[in-house]
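Materials and Methods. Structural model of Lysine--tRNA ligase. The 499-residue sequence of Lysine--tRNA ligase from Lysobacter korlensis was retrieved and submitted for structure prediction as follows.
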Amino acid sequence: MSDTRTETELTPAEISEQKAVRLAKRERMLSAGVDAYPVALPITDTIPAVRQRYPELEPDTKTGVEVSIAGRVVHLRNTGKLCFAALQSGDGARIQAMVSLAEVGEASLEEWKELVDLGDHLFVRGEVITSRRGELSILVREWRIAAKAILPLPNLHAELNEETRVRQRYLDLIAREQARYVVRARAAANTSLRATFASHGYLEVETPMLQTMHGGAAARPFVTNSNAFDTDLYLRIAPELFLKRAVVGGIERVFEINRNFRNEGADSTHSPEFAMLEAYQAYGDYEQMAALTQELVQNAAVAVTGSHVVTWADGTEYDLGGEWDRIGMYESLSDAVGREITPATPSDELEALAAEAELEVHLPTHGKLIEELWEHHVKGSLGRPTFVMDFPVDTSPLVREHRSKAGVVEKWDLYVRGFELATAYSELVDPVIQRERFVEQAKQAARGDVEAMRLDEEFLRALEHGMPPSGGMGMGIDRLLMAITGLGIRETILFPLVK
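The predicted structure was written out as tokens:
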């Protein structure tokens, strides 16, 4: 007989025994000439469509309408002359299948009891009815196993542990509505992003994931080797330098939703592989990119939740609407430490402040000290979505110097929910200054900074052909979903990398 216990209720030995039992059922089917994994089935309807068509039938109703549907068995109850199964579609919608002796006959009913297990995909044909309790059902006249499950399902009435949710996401999708919701939310957010860009005349392109020179961000790359070219290649850390080449070539409004790879730590807001949006606009600047980014995020929030006020997984409401706050990095740090900090503040004074805060800064330049001190003293106080404006020059090698403030560049970081969601620049397009910045980065790399950029002659050659004044922005797609749903990064990535 079928064992209806679930995987989490079975010991490893029992799971192994269950697998053997199910494999024997598969073999029995094949020996009888019955395909345990048929290539096609005469399906006429989906479970969600049937439920939508008959939302409020009275109990014990017969519609006279016959449908053929398929779904995964997530509940099974076998009695004498009447058996019940709950069939679930991919989106979580369920319908009851009722298999009776009167409708299918004795042989078919006994085969049902012997062959059908929790987790199997099942095809049924029959009349749409409601049970005496009013449950929408299919009174089965024909059934077939559409795909035989060899392993039992987890307990669908208990919470999956995080390890199972992350490592076996397919089980998470079967068991949890929230997991299915995040997939739908991500798709809706990406659709919204593309629609917003289209409304502003942007073109979507693809740039290389394998690159001979890594660049576009301060990050440690993954290194691989090409047998065909007999050379080392780098997995993309950012698409920036190629997207700027596109702007040089005349694609004046361009964006890409891409996969990036950074050989660094993993935590609740960082993953070695992640999705990124980058966009560049000729004759724009970082102020215009701030307005665009606010529109992108707010439109995505409405697409996913129907409102700018989103409700996170823990029940907290967060308002992404309205005009977002803007603060200066140096000014807000000055307020936090109770003394004026400027681009001219000597590094030894900044190092003393870092020591007071017990901060360890690797290869401490002025800019790195400023940013570490700001994160320590200011970041945690940000509640609303906030653009943090005007960064140190030496940590921003691809950014134009500020048009009116000495010692800073026209760059902002957007903080939402306490983490960095996006960043944008008024782009540095002067090839002479860009070469100088790259040379300084090369010096930092020689001093042991593994995140420093390399001197990229191909990119400089493109700039030397003339890049118009431009604004550029980058935003993490995984983090956008974090901002909207309140979940951690491993929940917003469908299949995250785990050790």
